[in-house]
Design brief:
Layout (H helix, E strand, L loop, with lengths): L5 H20 L8 H17 L1 H6 L11 H11 L4 H9 L1 H16 L5 H9 L5 H8 L3 H22 L2 H17 L7 H12 L3 H23 L15 H5 L1 H20 L5 H7 L2 H17 L11 H10 L3 H17 L4 H12 L14 H8 L13 H20 L4
Length: about 425
Amino acid sequence: MYLSSNSNKIKVFLILYFSLIVGFYFGENSSGGAYPDFIMRKSVIESFNNEFLMTFLNYDNTPDRHSPILLIIISFLNQLGIKLDIIRFIHLNLLPLLIFISYKCLIIRYSNIDKKIIFLICCAFFLSPILRSIAIWPDSRLLGLVLFLFSIYFFLRYKKNLKFKDCILNNFFLISSAYISPNFSIFFLYFYYYYIQNFKFSKKMVLLIFLNLTMSLPMFYYLFILDVNFLKTTAIDDINTLTRINPFNKILIIFSLIFFYLIPLIFRQLKLDILVKNFKISHFFYSSIFFLCCFYFFDYSIDYTGGGIFYKTSHILFDNASLFFIVSYLSILLILNIFKFNLNNFLLLIILILSNPQLTIYHKYFDPLLILLFLLCFEFKFSKEEMINKILVFNIYSFYFIFLILNFFRFLI
């Protein structure tokens, strides 16, 4: 493959990085929400600059429902005399760091796969409209995701080398990511599922729990003792509690996003005989029952914003959610057909739902998290090693390029 030589993979990286610089220069906002969110946060940063303690202790009264840590860092750098645009440019370079740590995770997981192929797959994240936008207009999700991927990296190292220090580092980076983006905190269930299996209730397990609790104490103190619970801040007012926490909304939306981010992995990858081999009539029955239960209680509205690409597209094309429901149902069928039915996968699906307790669900919470979880953590009924190839490189670049163009195109609608 032409792109697989070392010199050409570096050219790909530099060209894509340069495109990000161009996007920074022109103020790209391809995701749509990153720029207005940052403008809102500028006022909070100013408040931290002028009255830090008052802003910190009353942060739940600000319009931002994200962690204040990134804004505090920006405020600190700003007070050192560093202009906001320079800080934005520094933040921009978290995206290449995310690509680097994604690459490091994948080469641990797929040690026998051509590293050039893996590198090119990771570089495709430069084309993500979500990542580009939250890199150019600082959002805590990007830094949180980078730290979370470091936690996965050390977890994969532990599984490979069984060195306890990697468990310590896994915990450290997981909790650090939760301080930046609280959605990641629930992933401790996934890691501890493996730790309990290996350590039982030994001294090592007690040490990990102690470390986790100790590092988490400042966050609990801030949220519940000082009662600065910014997690309760909502983007939409006048919504009843049942609608806010409705798990059936989250299930169908998240499953439709799973279908979306599976596209580059399975399109032209899976042979028809694999799908036929794994298919069972019972899949129709279980999928239908599960879907109908979710459908009955689904009450998400287009007015809430978010909802994912299929939900929005369905309302644009048909002024209703019919396309979205079809895709959600197909996603349930696909998951039953190609995912292994085990505790590992079930736990990950539950975590994805629990990690998004808020009413509104956006792509930025899943891109490229889902693709990386598919490759690193989820277990399929076929060999994932066979998927890491030149076809996947083509698929993932096509996927993100089309996704980027569609995001630009929607501003013309």
